[in-house]
Amino acid sequence: MKYLDIAIELFLSYAPKVFLALVVLFVGFRLVRMAVNILNKALSHEKVDESLSSFLESLVGILLKGLVLITVANMVGIEMTSFIALLGAAGLAIGLSLQGSLSNFAGGILILLFKPFKVGDLIETQGHRGRVDSIQIVNTILRTVDNKMVVIPNGAISNGTVENYSAQETRRLDMVFGIGYGDDIQKTKEVLRDIITTHDKVIQDEEPLIVVSNLGASSVDIECRMWCANENYHPLRFEMNEMVKLRFDAEGISFPFPQQDIHVNMNPSALQQSSHTSLKTSFPQHSEKMMMPSSDLVGVEDEG
Fold first, then answer.
1. Maximum C-alpha span of the chain
2. Using CB atoms within 10 A of its CB, is residue 278 exposed (0-12), middle (13-18) or buried (19+)?
3. Which of 21, 107, 274, 275 satisfies CB 3.0 to 4.6 Å to 72 for a cystine?
4. Cα–Cα distance between 184 and 41 in angstroms, integer?
5. Which of 139, 164, 189 is the last residue in one of the domains?
6. Measured between alpha carbons, how far is 27 from 22 in angstroms, rounded to an integer?
């Protein structure tokens, strides 16, 4: 009879708490499911990457369900303060030991969320250039033009500079061609304009720019700027180099080589004496054959 009374007393004491806890658990899990669905719709509307969307939904669902379970445990009288403190200490220790990995993890989320690049884009970052093969939570994998695989931590990418060559549909191609100082500049510009305006890979809606960009030591540099589709950037550069060389040869326009003029001006008698002495000293067995008049050494030009 005594135990029955104790059982009835415990039941009357805990039954309302347990019932209320079950109601909170049921309603809480329903609310968590609704929150995850709302998050899913929001991420779909923002066109977030599918892998990131799935990960965020799972993470939010686990965190919210954990909060519901902690609330229910407190309602039925289970002391959670020490348990939460233990979890916090363990989380801090794990966070400190995995600091670099967590940084890369956060970087991966930022990349997938803000999308500075996507799979298939040609990018340059951290001193490497290549097409994005895959974007993972911790690393991004690039495939270089010579088919090497480069694995770069997402933390370094998110905190560094990224050049995305595939972000825009069109690109501007800048090329510089050097001609000799004796060549006709206007004729050269007309030839270049004809090549550019008749090339099928050049976007003709954009007016090309052809100007004298620099007067160099041995050449007049003419710069050409033209627009093309992104995928035609490198093919157009290669074709322009070949077409300009062939057309310049046909039009008689020269590609100058670096050259230097050297003028030696000395007193004729001193020059004759010094050259006679040096030739005798350096080549005693051929001294008679190597002698030359001083007048032949004045105004020597060396081209190379």
1. 142
2. exposed
3. 21
4. 65
5. 164
6. 8
pLDDT the model gives residue 42: 85
In a domain, 300, yes or no: yes
Supply the Cα-derived Rg of the chain in whole angstroms: 39
Distance CA 120, CA 117 (A): 9
pLDDT tens column, 42-99? 878 877 766 667 777 877 888 888 888 888 877 777 766 766 777 777 777 766 665 6
Identify the CA nearest to 155 among candidates 93, 123, 110: 110
Q: Quote the number of domains for the chain.
A: 4
Q: How far is it, in rounded angstroms, from Cα 123 to Cα 113?
A: 18
Instruction: List CB contacts of 279: < 8 A, sequence separation 6 or more.
Output: 287, 290, 291
Sheet holding 220-229, edge to edge: 170-179, 220-229, 209-215
What integer is the mean pLDDT of 16-40?
Answer: 86
pLDDT greater at residue 226 or residue 267 = 226
Q: Is 240 helix (H, G, I), strand (E, B) or coil?
A: helix
| Choice between 104 and 169, residue whose per-residue pLDDT is larger | 169
Instruction: Give dist(CA 25, CA 116) in Å, integer.
Output: 41
CATH code (residue 129): 2.30.30.60
Question: Contact 153/107 with Cβ under 8 angstroms?
Answer: yes
